[in-house]
Amino acid sequence: MKFGGTSIASIERIRNVARHIARERQLGHDIAVVVSAMAGKTNELAGWCEEAAKLCDRREYDAVVASGEQVTAGLLAIVLQEQGIAARSWQGWQIPILTSNEHGSARIKHIGAAAILDGFAARGEVAVIAGFQGLHKESGRIATLGRGGSDTSAVAVAAALGAVRCDIYTDVDGVYTTDPQIVPKAKRLDRVAFEEMLEMASLGAKVLQVRSVELAMVHKVKTFVRSSFDDPGGFKQGTLICGEEDIVESQVVTGIAFSRDEAQITLRRVADRPGIAAAIFMPLAEANINVDMIVQVASEDSGVTDITFTVSAADFARAQTILFKAQPEIGFSSQHGASDVVKISAIGVGMRSHAGVAALAFKALAEKGINIRAITTSEIKFSVLIEAAYTELAVRTLHTLYGLDKA
Amino acid sequence: MKFGGTSIASIERIRNVARHIARERQLGHDIAVVVSAMAGKTNELAGWCEEAAKLCDRREYDAVVASGEQVTAGLLAIVLQEQGIAARSWQGWQIPILTSNEHGSARIKHIGAAAILDGFAARGEVAVIAGFQGLHKESGRIATLGRGGSDTSAVAVAAALGAVRCDIYTDVDGVYTTDPQIVPKAKRLDRVAFEEMLEMASLGAKVLQVRSVELAMVHKVKTFVRSSFDDPGGFKQGTLICGEEDIVESQVVTGIAFSRDEAQITLRRVADRPGIAAAIFMPLAEANINVDMIVQVASEDSGVTDITFTVSAADFARAQTILFKAQPEIGFSSQHGASDVVKISAIGVGMRSHAGVAALAFKALAEKGINIRAITTSEIKFSVLIEAAYTELAVRTLHTLYGLDKA
């Protein structure tokens, strides 16, 4: 069971979390719980680090910010004990959860399950685990997994313990066909395939951290997303993220995701010669800037071409500067940028066996007067880049087109 | 170097702390720094624990409250690095600082100095150590040393490293002959003997934690108390706590301490028979209540006696209840209590070689009309219990009597 920051933002809410745990205990389950820091706490700690130094030692940053989860793990253990449930807190270094040494974005390498399993067997003890953190064994220092890393901690712990299920409690009651704030008819999905969830998370759905879904997929950890604000004793609804084989009736398109974190760059009149792509994209790669959608359009003049691609909004200014510096080598006539763009994606494992799914979308969007600036497709999803002003219209159009409005 | 909560209450103050450290670095010293949590932080964390459960698991309490020092250690390391000083933070379990398992009031059993000394030698690195905390080796859990325990951490680290000196930075510039708020003529002492400081701390002076002074005395760690709010580059004044052999000219009385944390209990007409002291004091000892001053006054009637003693104000109500319950066994006629009392103490190693020091005080207090309710003496101090209303008058009287007003 994993509880995020809003679910444990006060002692009163931690008591509610304990009621969820008590219910599962009464069903006879052994339980490991992974907790985030109280809502806002990680931002406060990270803010102090930034105030201390613009570019701070990531090892020290990790030591500072990891304290937030240490606090909530201890507090939840206290509340559980108060309710008569045997419990103890575990920090990453105590278990240990061993990680790589990429401080601030470390990856989990190994989890020692023995002590926690012993706590289940010998003392019937709920293990309350500080999420987001681990220990880099060689240096003996705390490493954190990056923002939202507690989801990843939870799935990794579930895999290490051989858990039947990983329940992610959050502030929504599951994964929806799209954002209900844009499409009120959006419906909660009972089941989503790992691959679909991975695309949704990558393409803008914020329910789960991408890496946690990857991990769940690799280790086949059934992950159930539900709300911690439900009545702890009442009916439980949510979304089960599972293997395709566990989904009886799959839709062609399962969900519509969108991401506003995009920026578009167009280089005009680039020489159409071998090695031109490398000349453009190598300097960006060296600056650790990810390029997503790429479209090359032949210019009217022969021998030159226009190239459009997207980067994340955070990298926009930096990418433009790098490209201007590289202008002599690349040889473009002008650079154009736009940050008022959005990437709309449709995801569904059914696309594998259905042809022409994306083509339907291009037609429907065109009929609404929405201009598509770039397209990418993969086996189970396609994405289009459009002007941001059309976001809601485009999402609603695709949601209806693929039959997701129906009950 | 040790810095308390008010010295590191913000990033701005932490920058000031770093300037003190930079000055000592420039003098060529290797430095270990022990830090407390930011002012108010430990209270906040302890408050959450209490909200979670009135009587909480002390192991979990320790895990929660130890996080405060983890944060300041990391932040100070970041600020030092920003100023070009190699530094890293150390938590209790990383060093390790091994403790007993009395969670909430653990005692330091061993400090592994090797890694810190290696940091000095190999990387010229300032070791920034989270105070107040350690690791109980057998359980692998965090144990804290009790409130104010960072002083103890600092002295213990200094002893383990074989440090030349332990500098305690606080919000006052040293140890005074008495509280300057009561006696404006009170003077900062340049030097105080370990034994004197131990008595002063035990008898009400709040500059240092009692256990830290014990530890400094046992390991002969010269401890320098000074203010962190001084100009980091300027003249440094403070009080050196050291062996008597390092004090050239010692006063008969070094300081006047007082404690308001006292309560007086009198049992009237107690049967004057063997075993009566045990009948009174055993039930209190079993309830973990410390009895301090004891006076027995023969009653006018033969065969009975009045017994007066003091307990800490916090134990007052509990002690009274216990004694009423034990009335049949003890056999007193009535119990009288008073919490409006204060214990005034005069401390000085010179008392060992001077007779009649206390007698002077009894006379001087009597001349001012101050009634003495109880007296205790030891080799280097004496204490009198008086009515609280006379506190300031008594402190000033003794301060003048023993020549402490003079420049």
The most extensive interface, with participating residues per chain, is: A-B, 35 and 35 residues
Mean pLDDT across the residues of chain A is 93
The CATH first-level class of the largest domain in chain A comes to Alpha Beta
Number of helices of chain A: 13
Q: Stretches of chain A where pLDDT falls below 50 for ≥5 residues?
A: none
**What share of the residues of chain A lie within helices?**
25-40%
Structural class of chain A: alpha/beta
Oligomer: homodimer
Instruction: Tell the overall outline of chain A.
Output: globular
- Rg calculated over all Cα atoms of chain A: 24 Å
The total number of structural domains of chain A is 2
Distance between the termini of chain A: 30 Å
CATH topology-level fold name of the largest domain in chain A: Carbamate kinase
Q: Give the spatial strand order of the biggest sheet of chain A.
A: 3-6-2-1-9-11-12-10
Largest sheet of chain A: 8 strands, mixed
Strand content of chain A: 25-35%
- The number of distinct β-strands of chain A equals 20
Say which CATH homologous superfamily of the largest domain in chain A is assigned. Answer: Acetylglutamate kinase-like
Can you tag this structure with a few keywords?
globular; homodimer; Carbamate kinase; 8-stranded mixed sheet; VC0802-like; 407 residues; alpha/beta
Describe the structure.
Two copies of one chain form a homodimer. Chain A has 407 residues and is of the alpha/beta class. The first copy, chain A, folds into two domains: 244 residues, Acetylglutamate kinase-like (Carbamate kinase, 3-Layer(aba) Sandwich); 158 residues, VC0802-like (2-Layer Sandwich), CATH 3.30.2130. Chain A is built from 13 helices and 20 strands. In chain A, strands 3-6-2-1-9-11-12-10 form an eight-stranded mixed beta sheet, sandwiched between helices. In chain A, strands 13-18-20-19 form a four-stranded antiparallel beta sheet, sandwiched between helices. Chain A has a four-stranded antiparallel beta sheet with strand order 15-16-14-17, with helices on one face. In chain A, helix 1 crosses helix 4, helix 7 packs antiparallel against helix 8 and helix 12 packs across helix 13. At the A-B interface, helix 2, helix 3 and helix 4 of A face helix 2, helix 3 and helix 4 of B.
